[in-house]
Amino acid sequence: MLVFQNDYSEGAHPAILKRLAETNMEQLPGYGTDHYCEAAQEKIRQACACPQAQVRFISGGTQTNQLVIDTMLQPYEGVVAAESGHVNVHEAGAIEATGHKVLTLPQHDGLIDAGELREYCETFYADGNHEHMVFPGMVYISHPTEYGTLYTKAQLEAIAGVCHEYHMPLFIDGARLGYGLVASGTDVTLPDIARIADVFYIGGTKVGALFGEAVVFTKGNMPKHITAQIKQHGALMAKGWLMGLQFDTLFTDGLYTRIARNADEMADRIREALRAKGYRMVYENTTNQIFVVLDHATIDRLEREVRLGFMERYDDNHTVMRICTSWATTAESVGRLIDSL
Amino acid sequence: MLVFQNDYSEGAHPAILKRLAETNMEQLPGYGTDHYCEAAQEKIRQACACPQAQVRFISGGTQTNQLVIDTMLQPYEGVVAAESGHVNVHEAGAIEATGHKVLTLPQHDGLIDAGELREYCETFYADGNHEHMVFPGMVYISHPTEYGTLYTKAQLEAIAGVCHEYHMPLFIDGARLGYGLVASGTDVTLPDIARIADVFYIGGTKVGALFGEAVVFTKGNMPKHITAQIKQHGALMAKGWLMGLQFDTLFTDGLYTRIARNADEMADRIREALRAKGYRMVYENTTNQIFVVLDHATIDRLEREVRLGFMERYDDNHTVMRICTSWATTAESVGRLIDSL
Amino acid sequence: MLVFQNDYSEGAHPAILKRLAETNMEQLPGYGTDHYCEAAQEKIRQACACPQAQVRFISGGTQTNQLVIDTMLQPYEGVVAAESGHVNVHEAGAIEATGHKVLTLPQHDGLIDAGELREYCETFYADGNHEHMVFPGMVYISHPTEYGTLYTKAQLEAIAGVCHEYHMPLFIDGARLGYGLVASGTDVTLPDIARIADVFYIGGTKVGALFGEAVVFTKGNMPKHITAQIKQHGALMAKGWLMGLQFDTLFTDGLYTRIARNADEMADRIREALRAKGYRMVYENTTNQIFVVLDHATIDRLEREVRLGFMERYDDNHTVMRICTSWATTAESVGRLIDSL
Amino acid sequence: MLVFQNDYSEGAHPAILKRLAETNMEQLPGYGTDHYCEAAQEKIRQACACPQAQVRFISGGTQTNQLVIDTMLQPYEGVVAAESGHVNVHEAGAIEATGHKVLTLPQHDGLIDAGELREYCETFYADGNHEHMVFPGMVYISHPTEYGTLYTKAQLEAIAGVCHEYHMPLFIDGARLGYGLVASGTDVTLPDIARIADVFYIGGTKVGALFGEAVVFTKGNMPKHITAQIKQHGALMAKGWLMGLQFDTLFTDGLYTRIARNADEMADRIREALRAKGYRMVYENTTNQIFVVLDHATIDRLEREVRLGFMERYDDNHTVMRICTSWATTAESVGRLIDSL
Asked: Is the ipTM of this complex over 0.90?
C-alpha cells in the first residue's frame, strides 16, 4: 500500500536514530537542562539570526499552541485566527479548555488579510461595549497554512504591523515550517520569520523528528517561570534531551531544510502529473500538501493502492482529498502514485 | 432627559419593593432554601404547565448562561449558537472561561435555522476526524433574540427535533422572555417553551425585578449537586429569598406578562411613528427592542433629549441605534420621543 | 422561633430599603457606572483615608474571593491561606475552578502566623525543585476570621511585611469586617486595613445590606480591564447602582459601624451569660460569632426554641454550635436566648 | 561523575532502541491507532489478567495524572491524596489548572490509611454544609509512593473498600510501578493492581522506556470520547506507535519486570552498605529510592564524585538526600558509590 495520508507516517530521519543510539546510556539531567538542549538552542538562534531568541522544546503541536496561547494571553484576551486555523478547528477545544476564545477572521486560501485584521481591531475598539467582549490579544497564523499555502514576506510584515499597532504578539504555527521555507517561489526565510514573529515554532514531528517542536520567543518575551507553566500544562518532558538531541541533529549542516526540500520536490512532481491529467486542485501552493477534487469512482479505484487523507465533501459526486508528501517520501512511491492516477 | 437606552434602567415593579419592605425583618434560611423560593418555584411550574420542572434562581444573565452551559456540557462539548448570540459576542468570554467553545451558526435576523443546524451536525459526524474537533453538545438560542425577533412555534419545534436527534439539550435564553410571550403575532406560549426546551430561563432583571433569572430544567435533567455547582461558579446568593420573593410576586396574578405587555405596546407605538416618518428599521419585530438606521445629524439632534443605545456602524453617514422600551416605559415619555423624531 | 443561626437571616437596614424605594424609578446607566456608585466609592475612600483607593461592588463573598484571587494571581501562583480559611473549605472549590491552588498554613484560632508564613516562603524558594511546585502568589486572611477572632495591628503588619518581602499582595476577606472594626479590644481601624492590605473587601451582605461587597484596591493595583474580567466571571450586575446605593447609605453618617456595634454588644451579653452558666467556648473572641460546646441533651432542649448553626463534632457526646448575632439582633431575643440556656 | 540523582537519567533499554530502528520507515496511522499499540494493549491486558482492560498511552506522568483526574471527576469533585502525593506537591498545580482541588489526608511514610480515608468521608457527608465543600470524588495513591514505600495487598484492598463504599474510583499512580512489583517482601502483583484499582498506570519513562505511561482502565470505565479528551489536554501524540512499540517491547518476555529488578537489587546493596556504615535512612523500603540523612561535610565530600538528589532540609547540620537507582544502574557504579560513602 502506498501511503500519502499525512506527513507523520514514518519515524525519524536516520541521523536522529543514530544519535539516540549513540547517546543512549549517557546520564543527563532532566527537564531540558542538559547540554544537548543547550547546543540545539544555540544552533537555532544562529539559524534564525536571532541571538536573543529564547528556545524551548515541546513534544507536540496542539500542546505547543495551547501553551503559547495560554501563557501569552491575559485572561480577558482571545487569540485571533483564520476560520480555518488549526487552533479553531482541529484541536478538540484545547485553546478554549485553557479559558481563551478563538476570535475568527475570514480565510482566503487559508491566509488571513492584514486589512481585515485591522478592520476587526478598529471595530472592536470603536465599540463602546467592548469591555463586554473578548479582547483581541494575539494573532495566530500558520505558515504554511492548513491548506499548504504561504504568506509572502510583505503579507507577514503587514500582519505584524497591525499586530504591533494593537499591542498583540504575532504567533506563527510552524508545524510544517520546513516545508514552507524551501518551497519554490517563497521569499520568506527563517531569519525573516524570527524577525517578524514575536513567537513561532519550528515543527519537528512532521519534518524529520520522532516528535518535538522548537518554540522560539524572539523578543526577550518568554513568559515568566516558563518551566513551571510548561509543567502545569503537562508538557514538561522528563527526558527533555530527547528533543534537544533531535533538534541539534536537524540544525547541524542544514539537515532540516535539506530533508524538507525532498517533500516539496515530490509534491511538485505530483502536482505536475495531476495538472497534466486534468485534475482540479483546490489551492495553488508549492508545499507538501495537495488538495485535489476527486470523483468517487476515482477514489474507489485509488484506494485499492494508495492511502490518501479525507479533506471535505465537495459535492454529491466529488470529495476533496489530501495528498501529503514528507521528508521520507521516495521518488519510487511518487512514480507509482502518478502511474495509478 | 428621555432614556430609551435599555430595559434595565429602573429598579423594580413597585409590588416587588412593597413585599421586600413587608418581609424585611422576617428571619429566613439562606441559599434559596426558604419558603418564598418554594412558593415561586411552584407558581412557575404552574405557569409553565410543567409539574416536573426544577427551578433555581440566579442573579444575572451572564452568570446563568455560564452556569447552565458549563454544568450541562461534557468537557469535550461546545455550545452551538448563532454568530450573533449573546454568549458568542457580549459576555467577555464567560463561556470559554469555563472551558467550552461556542460553535457558531449563521444568524438570520438573529435566528438560527433548523436545517442549517442539522447540516452542521451531519457534517460533524461525517468527518472521520471529529474526535479532533469540539463536539456539538447543546444548542443555545435566545427568545426574543438579541435583535428582538421571535421564533415561531414550528421553528422552535424543528430546532428541538434536530437537538434531540443528536442528543443535545436545547437551551433557551429568556432574558427578555416576557417581552416575547406577549408580543403581537407570536404563537409561542410559556407552556410551549417549557415543553420544547430542555432548559430555559425566565428573565427577571429586564422584566420588572431588581435582579434575578429563574432557570427551569424541564425534563428532570437538573445537573447533580446543583447547589455545589452554583456555589463553585460564585453564583449562590446568601439571601436567596430575595429572588424567590421577586418571582413569587411576578408570578402572582399574571404580573409578569401584564407588565411585559406595556413594553411591547410602547414599542409598537414607536415603530408606527418611525414608519410614518420614513425611518428604516433593520429588523421586523414586535418586541421591546427597535433597531433603526439614523443619519448622524439626526443622532446629534436626538441626543440632546434622548439617550439611545449604540448598536453598530451602518455606513459612513449612518449608524444603527437601539430604542428600547420596558415594563417601566410611560406613554408620556413615548409621546415625547415620537415628537422629537 | 429564635434565630441565631447566621448573620444573613434578615433583609437590609431600613434606611437602605427606604432609599431603594425613593430612587426606584430613577433611570440610571448600568454596570456600576452611575452616580450612586461614584458617591459610595468616594465615601469609602474617605472612610479608608485612602484617596487612591479603587473600589468595585460585587454581589457576594465567594464571587469576590474568586474574582480577586483569579485576577491578581499569575497562572503559576496559588493563594496562601489558613487551613480553616473560607476559600479553602467552604466555597465548593470556587478558587480551584479558576485554576489556582490554595496553599495552606496551620491555623491558630483561625489566624495565620507571620513567622510560619515566612518559613513557608523560605522553604519554597530554597527548594531547587520549586519550578515544579505552585508559587505562593498572594496571602488571604479573613478579619474577623471564620472563628470570629481578630488580628492585632502588629500581627497584620508582620504578615504584610512578609508578603511584601516575597512580592505577594495581602488580601483581607472582610465579609464581616464591620463586626471586627467595632469589637472591644481591637486596635485595628478601617484606615489601618486600607494601609496594610493590598486589596480587601467591606462586607455588606452580613452587615446591613441586602447583598454586596465593596472590593478596595489600595495601591493603584486594580487589575487591568477589571470590568471585562468581572463580566467574564459572571459577576457584573446590570443594575450595579443597587450596590452603590446600599454602600452609599451604609457609609453615610457612620451607619455601617453603628449597626455593626449592635451585633458585637449582643454577642458580648450572650458570652457573659454562657460564662456565668459554665459553658465552654472554643475561641476567645469579641465579635458576633460564638462557638460553644454543647452536650446533646442541651442541644435537643435548645432546638425547640432556638435555631443555632452546626459547627463540628466535638466528641461522642458534644457538638460545637455557633451562635451568631447581627446588626438586626434585638435585645429582646438575646434575653430570651439567655433565659433558655 | 557517578549519577544516582533520579531514575530517568538514561535513554531506553537497548531492545527498545533496536525496535525503533527496525520499524523506523514503516508507514503507520497516527494517534495510537496502529498495530503496535494494539499488540501492546493486548500484552498488557494479559499481564494484568484483566481481559476487559482499556489501555491508552500517554507521554508523561504529570500529563497522565492531569488527564485521568480531570476526565474521571465531576466538576464539583476533588481528588483525595496524601499530603505528600505527587499531584499535591510537585506538579506545578497541574491538577488545579483543570479546576479540581486536591483534598489531602495525612501521610504515613508516604502511605494513606484506609481508616483515615473512611473518617474523612464520614465527616464530609455528616456535615450539613457539604454542598458548600468540594466532594471527594476519587482517591489517588502512588505505588511505590514518593518515598519509595509500598502498600500491602491488604492495605490496598482496605482503601479500595472505602472508595467503593463512597462511589469513588481508586487511581494508582504507577510511575515506578515496576520497581514496586518486584521489590522484596511485597505481596502485590500486577493482576492485584488491576483487580483492586479502577484506573492505574504502568510507568515507562522511569522503567526502561524513552517516555510513555500506559494508563489502564480496569472496569470498562474509560471516559467517553477519550481521544478527544486526550487531544484537548494536549496529550495526543501524532506518532502514537512510538509508545505502542516501547510497551510492546517491555511486555514481551517479561522485560519490564526483569529490568525493574536490577534497580531494586542495586538499591538493596546500597541500603546494606549504608546500614553497615551507620547512616540513618528516613523510610524503611525495598524499592529503588533511598532517602538518607547526611551531614553537610559528607554531602560536600560525596558531591565531588556523585550526583545525588536533594530531598529536604533535616536540621541545621543535616539534609535528606535521595539515592536513586534504575533499570540502567550498573553493579560497578554501585560499588564505587559504596566505596565513596
From this structure: yes
